[in-house]
Amino acid sequence: MKKLSLIIAVCALMAFTASGVNAQPFTPTVAGDTYGIAQGGGNILAVPTPRDNNDNLAGIPNPADINDAINLLLGTAYARNSDVDFLRVVGPDETWQDLSSTDFSGEYALVSLTAANSNTLSVYDVTAPAVKVPVLGPVSGFGFLGKDGLTAATAFTAALSPFAGGTNFGFSIKSVPVSGPTNTWDSNPTSNPDGLDHMLTYHLAALSGQTIWIKVGANPASEYTFYDPYLIAWEDKPLLNGLLGDEDFDDLVFLVDRVRPIPEPISMVLFGSGLAGLAGLRRKLS
């Protein structure tokens, strides 16, 4: 019995280690937590922090950094992006699973925009990655566009998941600048031309059970109660002079609900390799 307990305990540790790998790769500036240190948060949590970039934009009434989006949703008063590092999902977030059922559908709700570009959010089934299904946008602008989801008049623009429950899927944004080439960024960095991670994920468990107003298409606004939401934030600019755009990761910010991130394939491979090694260990211990 002691041998079996040891193997189960080691398996659990390896599963945590394999799935706890930080989303990556980032530029050296982000990976080194340069902005977190500058904001006073340091890198104690070993969580790369996006640049706090939009608190002082002249003529823009609503600051629109990631911490501001979270304040809008939670009623908090976080001053800097480093203040919300503890909400970051540091495990793999490239691939997600739709948890919708016959009673509930996965939801995508637009929270804020701070982009000069015109951005469209799409999702795709991982078995057909070339088929992108647009769900939100195209949209552009700065701030929160006057919407907070507290009333029907200020409902968040939302969309339903196009997938059946259980589908593994990824996110993608199409970013069209005023001038210059159109860029498409994927939740899977290996699909991006620069090979970098353009997407950060925050787990907003405090929103679970809370109700907001959403508006799907031409339908009247309706109330929606969160199940277990995540906030996803994008950097829509390409790599230039060693930096990923302005590295504030707030060019398209949206909520997703009734979905969850799942381990990337390499994590499962590592976990499987660990199990194989443990099987050999168990034979030696027997």
Task: Write structural notes for this entry.
The radius of gyration is 20 Å and the shape is globular. It has 286 residues and is an alpha+beta fold. Helix content is 20%, strand content 29%. It is built from 5 helices and 15 strands. The strands form 3 sheets. Strands 8-11-14-2-5-9-10 form a 7-stranded mixed β-sheet, with helices on one face. Strands 1, 3, 4, 6, 7 and 15 form a 6-stranded antiparallel β-sheet that branches. Strands 12-13 form a two-stranded antiparallel sheet.
Task: Say what oligomer this is.
Answer: single chain
Which strand order spans the largest sheet, edge to edge or round the barrel? 8-11-14-2-5-9-10
Protein structure class: alpha+beta
Intertermini distance: 11 Å
- Mean pLDDT equals 81
Helix and strand run: HHHHEEEEEEEEEEEEEEEH
Write a concise keyword list for the protein shown above:
alpha+beta, disordered N terminus, six-stranded antiparallel β-sheet
Question: In a nutshell, what does this entry contain?
Answer:
By secondary structure, the protein is an alpha+beta fold. The protein is built from five helices and 15 strands. The strands form three sheets. Strands 8-11-14-2-5-9-10 form a seven-stranded mixed beta sheet, with helices on one face.
List the helices and strands and how they pair.
Blueprint: H1 2-19, H2 28-31, H3 34-38, H4 66-74, E1 95-98, E2 107-112, E3 115-125, E4 133-141, E5 156-160, E6 168-176, E7 183-186, E8 199-203, E9 211-216, E10 222-225, E11 230-234, E12 239-240, E13 243-244, E14 252-257, E15 259-262, H5 265-285
Parallel strand pairs: 5-9
Antiparallel strand pairs: 1-6, 1-15, 2-5, 2-14, 3-4, 3-6, 6-7, 8-11, 9-10, 11-14, 12-13
Helix pairs in contact: 1-5
